[in-house]
């Protein structure tokens, strides 16, 4: 079912990155008024009204609004420094295509992170092996096990499992185009049978999988649990690395070798 446009818009406006952007834009007219007042005080011997003054005032106004709006503390620093960073970038007088290129690379890499609040950061081979140990032995004469990594990044876990468990069908799904393309190429170039889908795991039916592996972020866990509860079949498992689910204690906590960060497992 598609969501009504108003709910998509209100969800978008509630995301911290979009709120931060709106605050930065909203601070501009206030900054103009303040700078105008400062200029009219004729105190230029104390502080010259320059682009630097404007950037400092803009940063301070944006940081103050961010504080009032109750965004996480690191956003105040980002809002404070953003106008100064723009000024510094302009001072470098770089050709404009560089900004476009950097923008496109960041867009390809992070894509919807502003909405999902799940950026890319990889898990380690020790974690992949700990997840592998949670899989049952190959089914004698039975159907093949199906495993998915939701948010598969560069594909490390999926490629590993496809290599060490030939009896398992392993799929990765990734929203951001550049990490997905990298994982897809890695599979093609290494001749792996791992499958990589480009898309949103929210649109996928978890009922097809015996094991769902997630390494996401605290912001995603509540919705992930609701989806898993609605769709996962009896006998299947959900494993999350690092992030647990508020109000839903795991059935098992696993520690990978040499890793203090736990894996959480829920049985369905
Ligand atoms: C923390 S990384 C984990 C990467 C990989 N699973 C690993 O263990 O190395 C999370 C990944 O999930 C992706 N992601 C976030 N939300 C997603 C969604 N709704 N559907 C598909 N991928 C998503 C992000 O783009 C990011 O690459």
Can you walk through the features of this model?
The chain is of the alpha/beta class. The chain has two domains: 89 residues, no CATH class; 135 residues, Vaccinia Virus protein VP39 (Rossmann fold, 3-Layer(aba) Sandwich). It is 51% helix and 13% strand. It contains ten helices and seven strands. Strands 3-2-1-4-5-7-6 form a seven-stranded mixed β-sheet, with helices on one face. β1, α8 and β2 form a beta-alpha-beta unit. The two termini are 25 Å apart. It binds S-adenosylmethionine (SAM). The site of S-adenosylmethionine has 22 residues, from α8 and β2.
End-to-end gap: 25 Å
How many strands, what sense, and barrel or not for the largest sheet? 7 strands, mixed
Would you give the CATH topology of the largest domain? Rossmann fold
Helix tally? 10
**Any idea what the CATH superfamily of the largest domain is called?**
Vaccinia Virus protein VP39
The CATH architecture of the largest domain: 3-Layer(aba) Sandwich
Number of strands: 7
- Overall morphology: elongated
Oligomer: single chain
Could you tell me the strand content as a percent range?
Answer: 5-15%
Mean model confidence by pLDDT: 91
Radius of gyration: 24 Å
SSE string = HHHHHHHEHEHEEHEEE
Number of domains: 2
Helix coverage percent: 40-55%
Strand order of the largest sheet: 3-2-1-4-5-7-6
Low-confidence stretches: none
């Amino acid at each position: 079912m598609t969501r009504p446009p108003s709910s998509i818009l209100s969800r978008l406006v509630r995301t911290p990155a979009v709120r931060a952007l709106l605050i930065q834009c909203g601070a501009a007219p206030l900054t103009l008024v303040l700078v105008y007042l400062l200029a009219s005080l004729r105190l230029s011997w104390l502080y010259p009204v320059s682009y630097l003054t404007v950037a400092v005032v803009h940063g301070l106004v944006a940081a103050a609004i961010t504080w009032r709006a109750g965004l996480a503390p690191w956003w105040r620093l980002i809002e404070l420094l953003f106008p100064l960073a723009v000024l510094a970038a302009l001072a470098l007088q770089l050709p404009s295509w560089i900004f476009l290129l950097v923008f496109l690379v960041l867009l390809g890499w992070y894509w919807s992170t502003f909405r999902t609040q799940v950026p890319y950061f990889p898990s380690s081979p020790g974690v992949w092996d700990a997840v592998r140990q949670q899989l049952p032995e190959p089914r004698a004469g039975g159907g093949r096990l199906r495993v998915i990594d939701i948010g598969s990044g560069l594909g490390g876990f999926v490629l590993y499992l496809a290599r060490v468990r030939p009896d398992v069908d392993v799929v990765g799904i990734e929203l951001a185009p550049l990490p997905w393309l990298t994982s897809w190429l890695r599979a093609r170039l290494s001749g792996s049978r791992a499958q990589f889908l480009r898309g949103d795991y929210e649109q996928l039916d978890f009922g097809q999988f015996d094991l769902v592996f997630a390494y996401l972020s605290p912001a995603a866990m509540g919705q992930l649990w609701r989806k898993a509860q609605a769709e996962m079949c009896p006998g299947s498992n959900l494993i999350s690395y690092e992030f647990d689910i508020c109000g839903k204690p795991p059935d098992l906590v696993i520690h990978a070798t040499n890793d203090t960060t736990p894996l959480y497992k829920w049985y369905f």
